[in-house]
Every structure is written in structure tokens, then in C-alpha cells.
Specification:
Layout (H helix, E strand, L loop, with lengths): L1 H6 L3 E2 L6 E6 L2 E8 L2 E5 L3 H12 L12 E2 L2 E5 L5 E3 L10
Antiparallel strand pairs: 1-2, 2-3, 3-4, 5-6, 6-7
Length: 95
């Protein structure tokens, strides 16, 4: 996967080697990989479909739709497009 992403214009993050980024046509694409799970983020659904077709040339992949949980983290998308992580803890107080 690493070789394929790098060969197709992605850069591997130095801070997190599971994160790949690509800036193309004025927009960012992010791919977060953990074992055999990927989260792909881009503002264009067409670009994500294009990415999936590229990956399916090399691997058998399934699109599980919008992410709601990842590695035990609850993820909710806000109306403005931002993401809220671990919302079940947002109103907790710790002593």
C-alpha cells in the first residue's frame, strides 16, 4: 500500500506514518491507514471514487460508507462539515 500511495503522488506524514496526504488542483486528500482499514477524506466524492478505483486495481476493497467509528473512536459529522470525535465524552467532568 505504501509503495502504491507514494507512486501516485501521496506523501507519507513524518509525524504519523499511517497518514498520507496529497494536494492536487488546490484541494487536499487525506488517507489514514490502520492495518486493513482506510479512511479517505476529500471534499469531492468523485475524487474519492477515482481513488477507490485505483486501489481496487491492486487490492480488493469495500466501501463501508461514512465513518461513524474508527479504532474505538466515535465520529460524528457536524452540519458545517467539521468532525466531532468522542462526543460521548464532551460533557463529562473529570475529578
Amino acid at each position: 500500500m505504501n509503495k502504491i500511495l507514494l507512486a501516485n503522488g501521496f506523501t507519507q506524514s513524518k509525524a504519523d506514518q499511517c497518514l498520507y496526504t496529497m494536494f492536487e488542483h488546490g484541494k487536499w486528500m487525506y488517507v489514514l491507514m490502520y492495518v486493513d482499514d482506510l479512511i479517505v477524506v476529500h471534499e469531492s466524492d468523485d475524487t474519492i471514487v477515482k481513488f477507490a478505483k485505483l486501489m481496487n486495481k491492486h487490492f480488493t476493497m469495500n466501501d463501508l460508507g461514512d465513518v461513524s467509528h474508527y479504532l474505538g473512536i466515535q465520529i460524528e459529522r457536524e452540519a458545517d462539515g467539521s468532525f466531532l470525535l468522542q462526543s460521548k465524552y464532551k460533557n463529562c467532568s473529570y475529578s
